[in-house]
Every structure is written in C-alpha cells, then in structure tokens.
Predict the 3D structure of the following.
Amino acid sequence: MRPVKRGASPIGNDFNDYADAKVYLVSRIGSGWYGQTQVANYCSYCERPISTNLAVEHIQPKGLTVGLIQPYAHLKGKWENFLLACVNCNSTKGDEDVLLSDLLLPDRDNTFIAFNYDQDGIVSIALTGPSAPLAEKTLSITGLDKAATQSLDDNQRAIALERVGQRMNAWLLARSAKEDVDAEPHNQRIRNGAVRTALAHGFFSIWMKVFENDSDMRGRLISAFRGTQDSGCFDPVTTAAISPAPNPDALPHGSKS
Ligand SMILES: [Zn+2]
C-alpha cells in the first residue's frame, strides 16, 4: 500500500462539503504523472487506477452510529480524515469503526513495508511483531485479504473482474516491462515506457516489488505517483523503505510501521 503525505488543508480548515476536497486529494496523493500529463488516479487502499467513482474516503467513518451517537460526525469535513477510495474498498470498509491506533494507514505509517504482494494476486502481511495485527486489520477492513474468484468468459478465458485478478495482471505487465528494461538497461526510452505503463495500470507496490533491485526505476516510480516521495517513507538516494514512517504531517498514532 503506497504511503503518502497529504499535507496541510488547502483551505486552511475543514470542508463544508467534503466532495470539494477531492480535487486536492487527487492532486496531492491520488494521481500519477508522466511529465505534465496526468495519467491516472488511484485508490489509496488497493492502488487500482480508477477512472470514475473515485470517492473521498473518510478514514474514521462519518456514518458510524453507536446507540444515539455518531462519534465521527465532526470529522465529516476534516481534511486529515480523508483519503481516496474505489467503490470496492469504500463499500467493504463501510461504517466499521476505525481506531487510529489499531491499523496501519498510508498517510501516517509506512504501509509499503507492511504487505507482501505475490504474483498470484494475494496480499499478505509482511510484518512480524506488534505491528502485524495492525497490518492484518488494514487488510481485513478494506477486503484486500479476499481470495480470488474464478471468472471465465464464454471462451473459457480467465477474466479479471476484481482486485485479485487485476493484481495478477499488473504483476505480469510489470514483469514483462522489467524484461524489456533488463534487455537494454541504459535505454532511457524503455525506462520511460515502463513508468508510463505503471502509471496507466496502477498497483505501485507491485511495480516496486518487481523492480526491487533497480533503484533507478524505483526512484522514477516514487516520484511519478504523487505524494509518495513526500511521505518520507523511501530513502531519496537508495529508495530503501524507511521505517518507522517519519509521519511528516505529525498525524495522531503515526509511525507505527
Ligand atoms: Zn480500492
């Protein structure tokens, strides 16, 4: 899960209509850029490119009701409570209660080191020790631990309908891009092409894993996906993950991984 820095509220305080925050969120943490071209926008949780229906996501759910109380209603317009989410992550998470101390979040923790992305499309916990249950909670609340469902078309070809299948496809794309880069490692056009493919198809973490031994490519990916570099979760020279996260926005319960 790609760590990001949201920065201070662009309007200096809370939003009357949280939908108005979307443009700032997409610009700062939710888009991928090739030069001056905005290639795609992404879900903060599953890393998919989302062309429509990317929603302002409330980390602590605005709609949670406990008895007669809505404990997070006051966070409905709060900039620090916003990420971006696709329909799947948003609806899976729903109004389930979120205690900031109980899970890892991309705006304050190094969520990149928390998870393993495998070529079978499965996301698993990479951490051991006290942070492992927090990583697990993040996966379960967003449904990223869901298994693949087999979907075949009328020619019996496997079709990726959901996040697992899409991760498998991203893995194949990233692997073939890496083969091209490795065949001509000094060819800048091939490297640029690989970045464009990564931006178009999303799944930052998968690309970072496939290029784990190529700091040049990792550096390009880190700077192309907005908000990643500013998170401080990657060494600017080596691209090695920095943990615990520096949590540059000083958000509560940050730096848990
Ligand atoms: Zn998602």
The beta strands are 31-34, 37-41, 55-58, 82-85, 115-117, 123-125. The mean pLDDT is 95. The longest helix spans residues 163-183. The pocket of zinc ion is lined by residues 43, 45-46, 48, 85-86, 88-89 (CB under 6 Å).
